[in-house]
Amino acid sequence: QCRSSSFHILTPTRPAVQLNCSNLLFAPYNTSYIKLPEHMKKTGLCKDLNLWNKPLITYPAHMFNKHSCTIILRKSRDCFIPCFIPIEYENALDKRQKSISLLANEITDAQLN
């Protein structure tokens, strides 16, 4: 049973999500460190094959609307991210960040902070 958890992963297989899991967040692995390319090579991970956004939901299809499965992207532009990031997710993130900045400016302008 897994609830309200985030997973930032690089996986060549689909992440399996069991029936009793809920409120999960999947995102691409987005950590960088000096030996990452070496470690990926040793473990056989390939940056071109990442199925983080294709979870295998193991409950009946008619129950899908009762559960949430959210996929978001968090990244820093100066980090090495070992996997392909779909342009749709980059665009959605940019739009979200602009909305947050706009709201922060409105709060500042109204002196509500």
Description:
The longest helix is centred in the last third of the chain and has 23 residues, at 87-109. The model is unreliable at 61-75 (pLDDT under 50). The chain has a three-stranded parallel β-sheet, with no helix packed on it. A two-stranded parallel ribbon has the order 2-4. With 113 residues, the protein is α/β, with parallel strands linked by helices. It has helices at residues 36-43, 87-109, and strands at residues 3-9, 16-17, 22-28, 56-57, 69-71. The chain is extended. It has one domain.
Structural class: alpha/beta
**What does the oligomeric state look like here?**
single chain
User: What is the radius of gyration?
Assistant: 17 Å
Mean pLDDT, to the nearest integer, reads 77
Helix content: 25-40%
Residues in β-strands, percent: 15-25%
Number of helices: 2
- Gap from first CA to last CA: 39 Å
Largest sheet: 3 strands, parallel
Say how many strands there are. 5
Name the overall outline: extended
Widest sheet, order of strands: 1-3-5
Q: From N to C, what is the helix and strand string? A: EEEHEEH
- Low-confidence parts: 61-75
Tell me the count of domains. 1
What are the main properties of this structure?
113 residues; alpha/beta; three-stranded parallel β-sheet; two-stranded parallel sheet; 5 strands
